[in-house]
Fold:
Amino acid sequence: MLTSTYDKIVQLKRENRKAFTVLVDPDKTTLKKADELVSLCTKANVDFIFVGGSLVVSDHLEELVQHIKSSCDIPLLLFPGSPSQVTPYADALLYLSLISGRNPEYLIGQHVISAPAVKKSGLEVIPTGYMLIDGGAPTTVSYISNANPIPTDKNEIALCTALAGEMLGLKLLYMDAGSGAKQPIQEGMIHAVASQVNIPIIVGGGITTPEKAYNNSKAGADIIVVGNAIEKDTTLILEISQAVHSIKTVANPH
Structure:
């Protein structure tokens, strides 16, 4: 029996193994650049590749996904900013609901529009609670979604939001400071959420060094996502991967 992508994520969490993901933005990635990234990801034992962005204006998303899939066995998940960012050639789709905001379009509206295409695609759909956290700078996500991020020092808001998402049946939580964030999510906030919820937690935005990735993982992030920093310096792929994977914890008996 084939193991689903979500099963792999859950298994990693069950074994308390931290995972590292490289986020590829189709607007900034040519096929040649993708080849370089895939080669580095393979050498660095990257666990997942996310493809997508808040504002994909290029028209080669599907070609890019197919190209990456033909070059490696790393599970590829779509991280869509709109219903148009769906292709059946990926392994899975993070079906994002912006639970930190109050814009109905990004809680359910866009999902109603995209549902027929998503169903037809045959993709593995992973319901994901998307939580935008203030990273110290306006982001494309906050502008496009017209949603205010959770203040960086409001751990209790983040925790209650995460708990609500889990109890609503969402399978993943994605805490994101947004592309171009000046600082990553505070470790205290990650810990506050991770200590109370049982579903896997993805953390991204503002992670520019192996130290930040390591600290966020230690605080409770199950999957670390880095995009912008790698676009500027691809050597970070190996360094951050080593930092994340260096965390050794006692396996969860449950």
User: Anything to note?
Assistant: DSSP finds ten helices and eight strands in the chain.
